[in-house]
Amino acid sequence: MSYVDPEELLGSLDGLVNFITANTQPLTAKGLNPAMIKGNLEGVKSDLSAKKNDRDAKKAALKEAQQAFETSASTNYRTFSDAVDTVSGALGKQTPQGQQVLNYRKNVTGSNRKPGDTTAPAAKTTPA
Question: How do the domains of the chain map onto residue ranges?
């Protein structure tokens, strides 16, 4: 089966139900039971609508959760940055260990990325 666009299906269900309602007499004359067909379609629409509502609620919740995550990062960045300064200063900012610690901040701020690079490189680690 090929891809079925759920939004299009939901909209087309209404169109088909309305068509059946408008054409009840000729469909009945052909031996069909329009009420039964419409009942089946209403069941499909009900199920699909419930799933859409659930999806939309989760999208909204995800958006709120993402915003809270980003706010937390902004709020807590200063503590992280201060710790980077403290640890790199204790080790010597020009030493390999100090540079390694400074790279953690560069990873967060993106200052170690080249223009156009959208991937965040992982901090290099050395054995203790």
Answer: 6-109
- pLDDT tens digit string along 83-122? 999 999 999 999 999 999 999 999 999 988 877 766 655 5
Q: C-alpha angle with apex 34: 53 to 14, nearest 5 degrees? A: 30
Q: By the 8 A CB rule, do 91 and 104 touch?
A: no
> Do the Cβ atoms of 45 and 14 come closer than 8 Å?
yes
Contact 103, 121 (CB under 8 A): no
Determine the angle formed by the axes of helices 34-91 and 6-22, rounding to 10 degrees: 160
pTM reported for the whole predicted model: 0.62
Euclidean distance between CA atoms 67 and 65, whole angstroms: 5
- Which are the contacts of 81, defined by CB distance < 8 A and separation ≥ 6? 105
